[in-house]
Amino acid sequence: MIEVRHLTKRYGAHLAVDDLCFTVEPGKIYGLLGPNGAGKSTTMNIITGCLAASEGEVSVNGHDIFEEPVEAKKCIGYLPEIPPVYTDMTVDEYLKFVAEAKGVPAKARRAQLDEILESTGLTDVRGRLINNLSKGYRQRTGIAQALVGNPEIVILDEPTVGLDPKQIIEIRDLIRALGRKHTVILSSHILSEVSAVCDSVMIIAHGRLVANGTPDELTKLFAGEREVHLEVKGEKAAVQAALRAVEGAGDVSCKTENGVTHAVLHPQNGADVREGAFWACAKASLPILEMRVEQASLEEIFLELTQADGQPDAAQPPEEKPNPAEGGETA
User: Fold this and answer.
1) DSSP of 56-96, one letter per residue?
2) Do residues 54 and 42 lie in contact, with contact meaning Cβ atoms separated by under 8 Å?
3) Could you give the CA distance from residue 122 to residue 109 in angstroms, rounded to a whole number?
4) Nearest Cα residue to 83 out of 161, 192, 169
5) Integer Cα distance of 195 and 300 in angstroms
6) Residue 317 has what DSSP assignment?
7) Nearest alpha-carbon partner for 146 in 157, 133, 135, 132
8) CA 317 to chain centre
9) What is the per-residue pLDDT for 191?
10) Which runs of consecutive H residues, i.e. helices, occur in 183-245?
C-alpha cells in the first residue's frame, strides 16, 4: 500500500531523515514511534506530499507521491499535529468545505458527512463554531476532515497531544474503530499510546528506522533472556539443589534472608521453567512464596534503541557558528 525507499531529508547540514525504508500493508494500524525530533513529522509530511524529499521514493497504491501527487493524495487522509481547521466555521460548514475541496460528488456529500460525523462523535456539535469547541472536539474535527473522501489510508500525527486523560481514551477508541475500515499510520512519542492501539510498531531514532515489528515481536527480539525470580521458604542449599534439577533451568543464583531464599533462574534457550520449579520445590517440601518472570519491557527497549548514539539530537540541528572572515558577527 505504501512503500518508502531510501527516503532522505536534509535541512542544510542537518539530516532529519536518514535513508528510511519501510512498507505499510493494508488493514493494519501502524505506530511510528520515536522521541521528539526523531523525524516522525518530517516523514509523514513527505509521505503525504506536503514536503519534498532530498532523496528517495514514496509510492502510495502504486502512485509515486512526487510524480503523481494528485492520484497518490486521493488515497490518503492526513491529520497534521496542529489540526487544519477554520475556527470561524461550524463543524458542518468546515466539513462541507473540505468535501468540496476534495471533489466529493454533491449527491454523495451529505450522506458521507453524516456518516463521518457519527463515527467521530461530532453529530451533537455539528452546528457549533469550531472556535468554541474543546481541544478534544477540535481534534475529532481534524480526524473527520482526514476521513472526507473515504481514503484508504489515514495518517495521524500526534493525535492525542495536549488532550486530557478522558479525551485521550476517547481518541484511542476512535483510532481503533478507524482501523476496522482503513489502514492507519499513527505517530507518537508516547509508548503506551502506540502499544495500546497499534498492530505494528516502527521505531525511529535520529531519522533512521531502528526497529520494526509487532509489540510482541520487538519484545522477544530485543528483550534478551527472561529471568525467573522466586522467593522460597527454606535454606539456600536445599532451594538451590531443587532448582538446579529443573529441566532447562540453566544458572541458578540464591541468597537467604530470615529463612527465605531469593532465587533467580536463567532458563536455557528461553525455556519456560515455572512449572518445573513449582514441582521441584513441592517435592522438596519448600513452599514458594512468590514467583515472577522478568524481561525487558517495551519501554526499556524503546529507551535503549532511541538513546543518544553519538549523533546530535535530531531535534536540535548542529549549531553553525558565524565565520568572522566572512563578515559574521562575534559575541
Assistant:
1) EEEEETTEETTTSHHHHHTTEEEE-SS----TTSBHHHHHH
2) no
3) 16
4) 161
5) 13
6) P
7) 157
8) 24
9) 78
10) 191-197, 215-222, 236-244
What residues contact residue 40 under an 8 Å CB cut-off, 6+ apart?
Answer: 32, 33, 34, 157, 187, 188, 189, 204
Separation of alpha carbons 58 and 297, rounded Å: 33
Work out the percent of the chain whose per-residue pLDDT is above 90: 67
Write out the three cell numbers for 156: 495521524
Distance of alpha carbon 174 from alpha carbon 331, whole angstroms = 53
- Contacts of 327-331 with CB under 8 Å at 24 or more apart are none
How much is the pTM?
0.72
Structure-block grid coordinates of residue 183: 489502514
10 Å Cβ neighbour count for 139?
A: 27
Say which residue, 267 or 224, is predicted with more confidence. Answer: 267
Contact 284, 309 (CB under 8 A): no
Cβ count within 10 A of residue 107? 7
Distance of alpha carbon 48 from alpha carbon 9, whole angstroms: 14
Q: For cell 496542529, what's the residue?
A: 82
173 Cβ contact list (under 8 Å, min separation 6): none
Identify each DSSP E strand in the chain by its residue range.
2-11, 14-24, 29-33, 55-60, 63-64, 76-79, 153-157, 183-188, 200-205, 208-213, 227-233, 251-257, 260-266, 288-294
C-alpha cell at 38: 526523531
Q: Confidence class of residue 228 from pLDDT cuts 50, 70 and 90?
A: very high
Strand partners, 260: 233, 257
Nearest CA to 25 out of 199, 189, 147 is that of 199
User: How many degrees, rounded to 5, is the angle at CA 140 between CA 169 and CA 159?
Assistant: 60
| Residue-wise pLDDT tens digits, 55-95 | 999 999 999 999 999 999 999 999 998 899 999 999 999 99
